[in-house]
Amino acid sequence: MRTVPDIVQSLVRKSPFLEEALTAGVINHSALARLIKKDVEREALKRVQPGAVVVAVNRLARSLQGKARKQRSVFHRTPDLIVRLNLFEVTYANSRAFLPKQVKLFERLSARPQFFLTVTRGINETTIIASRELKEHVLAVCRGESLISRIDQLASVTVMLAPGTALIPGVYSYILKALAWEGLNVVEVVSTLNEFTIVLEDKNVSAAFSIIKRLF
Description:
Layout: H1 4-13, H2 16-24, H3 29-44, H4 50-73, E1 81-93, H5 98-109, E2 117-121, E3 125-131, H6 135-141, E4 147-160, H7 171-181, E5 188-191, E6 195-201, H8 205-215
Antiparallel strand pairs: 1-3, 1-4, 2-3, 4-6, 5-6
Helix pairs in contact: 1-3, 1-4, 2-4, 3-4
């Protein structure tokens, strides 16, 4: 049988915004307990005392706030942030002929390292994000492949993580939840071990930069 704390934790985590508000300490615990009491009883298959739900909410809030402090403490100094403008994205269906074209793309553009280029190959599709100056080269190399999507007018913010930071649970979500809380849509996320790049529409990059900078 599930316990009340387990059920409360599950209910709160279904809503990222509710979890964020509880972490930030801007929500009344008693009010939240009253709001979710019926859902807790439905999950527990029995009547539950209001005080038990309040206690569970209090404990969850302390746990979330402790984790948030740990995530912030990881950054002994504000990480470097790099903004790139004038990006575009194309996504193609994977094919046998496409992989050699990707190799050709990197070979052709190796002499132009000042421009942004990243290729992410999934199970069924591959996404290429690049500087607009490379658009003609990318489209020419990929000619004949099945285009799934093309998005122009993009920009990115790259967070330069300290070595080892990426292995700490919740670091990425700490950043992404802050953007979601402000209503900013993330088009793509690209990462290497110590670089976390968030791709957004051009119009949102300034706001995203300010939000991420405030986090640290």
